[in-house]
Write a structure and sequence with these properties.
alpha+beta
Length: 129
Amino acid sequence: MLKLTYTENSFYLECLTLSLEEWVTQRVIFSLRVGQNLCVQPSTASFLLPVNLPGVEALKTEARRADGGIIDLAICDAEYMEVTLRGSWLSDGSEEADGVFVTTMSDRTEFFLHKLWQEAQSCASVMSE
């Protein structure tokens, strides 16, 4: 399962070993115990990856082969590709942008996408130094 947590300036992508159902169940139980509203709704999430990352072409192939309908890849410009994922948005139901996006794909695609995202983050931090 992939979990995207949005922050004020960016987002964080995690690859979790729990199934989507297990994770949502735990989240529902937690919300009930603390008396917090929980809204779960179908949604999409998008982020950019540099097109020059090693492995981007393999991700395109894997996404077409194994996970059509859950992941879409589109070239934005000469430098970036947009990754759009279909999944669920969990929030307290308010109009605020606070929440977590979760989705599930084949283990291989999840791991590969997470690895590419980590590589993009490390490249970005090296360039900013």
